[in-house]
Amino acid sequence: MSRPSSSTRASEVVRLPAPAVHAHDRSLIPIGMSTILPDAAQRVRRLEETLLASLGRWGYQEIIPSTFEYLDVLSAGLEPAVLEQCYQFADRTTGRILLLRPDVTAQIARIVAMGMAGSCLPLRLSYRTTVFRYEPEHAGREREVFQVGAELIGVDDVAMDGEIIALMIDCLTQLGLTAFTISLGHVGFFKALLSRTGMSPEGRKRAEQAAARKDLPHLEDILAQERVPKRAARGILEAPDLYGREDVLRRGRVLAGHDRRLHATLDRLTQVYRLLVEAGLKDYLLLDLGEFRGFDYYDGVVFDVFADGVGCELGGGGRYNNLIGRFGRDLPSTGFAFDVGRLFQAMERAGEGASRAATDVLVAAPARRCGQLFQVARLLRKAGLRVLQGSLRGTDSEAIQSTVDEGRRLATASVVILGTPALAAGDALLVTGPSMSRRKTVKIQALPATLLKR
């Protein structure tokens, strides 16, 4: 399992297919914008529909955000560097400055804080849309980016971090992709390494940007300019190159020393990694203690996805527990987005997957059985069922009834309970019927066939 080089990750870009265009005609077309012709458009739409179907099977409901936002409103969720890349213009009606949507996550954070925060939590939202950011012509990057993504809002725990990453993996496999890697890290680790040195805020920001690009020579120069002690500088320079399996976590503990903040980030990362390994997803994972995302609102576990033959990331995401609070009520959240153009290129290499119709089932287990919960949910989704994962808050009859009531509220056809003391290791409690009144014990391996008969 190899890691993309820093130079490729920083500069290579993949575009949707386009017809041959003469040099003269190119001057008539806005730079960095896409025109997708009929054959490619059909394939792109199939790709998007497959992704949305996968998201739907996990219980994520589509939201369609507006193309324009008021600058003075959305700027609360965006860093200055992103605002500088926005396309801005005056609203003819009000005179206020509008901007073309530069980022969907910040926009959904605004929507949730200002209108959906009273909804039942957690919120599971999905979208397909475009974002617009100015890029210099020589940068070789698109200014119009097609995206499909998901946001999980309202809960901060390891299971939710695991769900969003497992969901991303499921989306990719539904497309027919198998040769890809999820680069998994925690932004708090590197930030804590920097903050304990006493560096200036500006110096820390420049160091983070250099680490995100894996530009170690520039990072070394920044540390020297900030007069960071050599011993501390060695640890900071080592972190961006710490990638691999469990040995990465062990080395991270050494660099952390007695710093509780650093150990806390490694604890969370370890828990998420082990959960995903227990769910059978280890082959897709690569731990990276220098992993960063391009927006400063990320503050927890983060991840990027890379595919063989495509040098830059296909997408990524992570936890942002403080973004929604910039617009109103604070809600912990996590999510991800795919770059459809880059996915399209990966699909050209690997072939297209297909989605299937589904029915609904809620699967729940106690927190200590999260690994089994992920495995059973994955088994059912592979059979074509729409599956929503839930937490069983206890193992007594009252907790079971609460979960059944939740299944009734969500209008699921069936509820599957795992991991209670009354159940044998290979059994599940299946609850069905118009009023969720029928209960029987079923072998876990027989669940797909049993549910598909209904």
Describe the protein.
This protein is of the alpha+beta class and 454 residues long. Among the domains are: 32-178 and 289-350, Bira Bifunctional Protein, Domain 2 (BirA Bifunctional Protein, domain 2, 2-Layer Sandwich); 360-452, Anticodon-binding domain (Rossmann fold, 3-Layer(aba) Sandwich). It contains 17 helices and 17 strands. A 9-stranded mixed β-sheet has the order 1-5-6-12-11-10-7-9-8, sandwiched between helices. β16 (427-432) and β17 form a beta hairpin. The radius of gyration is 23 Å and the shape is globular. The protein starts with 5 loop residues before the first helix and ends with a helix.
Short description:
The chain has 454 residues and is an alpha+beta fold. The protein contains 17 helices and 17 strands.
